[in-house]
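Standup, Tuesday
Yesterday: got the pipeline producing structure tokens again.
Today: sanity-check two examples.
Blockers: none.

Example 1:
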Amino acid sequence: MKNITIKSGNIKDFIVDLKANFDGVLGVEMDEYHLKLDTELVSGTIEATSFQEDLNYFDFDITFLEDVKLNIKSDGASPTYFAYCLSGSLEHRFGKNEKTNAITANQNAVINTVEDTTNIFYFKKDVAVKLSIIGIGNTATAEGDSLNSKIKKTFLNKTENFAHVGIQHITIAQKVQQLRAINQKGIVRNLLKKGLLQIIVAMEIEHHINSYTATEAIVNCLTLKQIEQIKTLSDAIQKDPSEQYSIKLLAQQTGLSPNKLQEGFKLIHNHTVNDFITMMRIEKAEKLIRNTDLNISEIVYSIGFTSRSYFSKIFKEKYNCTPKEYKFSQNSLAITA
């Protein structure tokens, strides 16, 4: 196993240290570092960006060609990390702790560290890993006012090393995918990335404060395979919400009991099955109003609703106006554009 040690430090020192250990070609633009790797040890890319308030972002799309143990020393700091594994797998543990946490595809980890802690990540040979990490440091002049200290107080409430691995919340996972998909350049790219990072951190705080205990209970009752089945089902509903779905039929398709199905949807989407279907129909209706010449009645029936009044009621709850008012506003925008 290849054993590599680097210091977390600032973004520049971190990425330069990675280059020194992995080799590769390093490019820099607008404080965004891009390391392209193609060596006997590793292939792929590593991107790193730093923003004010010690908000850092790392994107790994790599495959190691031998087992690697990556030791990251906190070097007197105590950062908090939100890690999202989109594909592949890896393991994490703290330097003086024998407990190892596996982080697999569609899982995320919240890692809280104290001063002078070493985070150890294990990467298996020939496993392609896509991993996004949001790092929040605490080097602000007044530590009590730093973003990291506020997160530790209001969210983690931890003064010791702590790691929690769980299933990615679907909405947060979508934001991470959007973050990875940004292809604009220069200041626009920088602003878009910073905005999405702040949204993701806020969503993480809200999600874990509201549902940490409940999520733990549900995860203990659902296997990763069952959660994957629910995600696959969710994707199918999102693509075609107009179908007349029933809990019984959906349960049969996944092999889950109706109760397990509901638990899974509440965990992943924070909605019941029926509420999720309704939400997907409303979102499709909004796109149809905005992008087609269909009238409201045609849209209502095309998305699977049978009552126009009910559709209008829930549409207004989401968009703060009736479908007719929304369509009028879109037409007005088109005329003035």
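Example 2:
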Amino acid sequence: MRKVGIFGGSFNPIHTGHIALAQAVQKQCGLDEVWLMVSPQNPLKRNDSDLLDDSLRFEMAQKALEGVDGVVACDYEFHLPKPSYTWNTLQHLSMDYPDHRFYLLIGGDNWAHFERWRHWKDILRHYDVIVYPRDDYSGTIDVPLLPISSTEIRQKVRAGEDISGLVPAGIIPLVKQYYR
């Protein structure tokens, strides 16, 4: 049975903090892989006019993860009904990949409001949840976090500032092109 962590998010854009976190969780929790699930629509977030097209965010995630062992960009939710409810995604994944055991990776900030998630009790009953620290919220695992945000990256691009080190070097041209 393959152990796979599901790390969902907008990845608008993906950055080095996302990748470092996924790698740290994968190693610390003994997961075979972490799938970065690029989400088309988060039901708990307001409509984000800054949200880049799904396919472009997925393209950047794929390119950013080239050569990164154990972490894979995933567009699975693009093919499911919207909005993207985690319970629906996990149920579909379990049916499509019966030889995988899925673990949900979420930040402590989301964990603090987990009861707002659709079918949250079912998620807890059927899946392991790995909580990483985020902002002022603690987690169930202790992993290093890089103080980087996608919002900050978009702002820096618009201001013409350097984003080296914030995103993988291979996607800097795409980030500059898509977010200017």
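Quick observation on example 2: The radius of gyration is 16 Å. Residues 47 and 132 are 25 Å apart (CA to CA).
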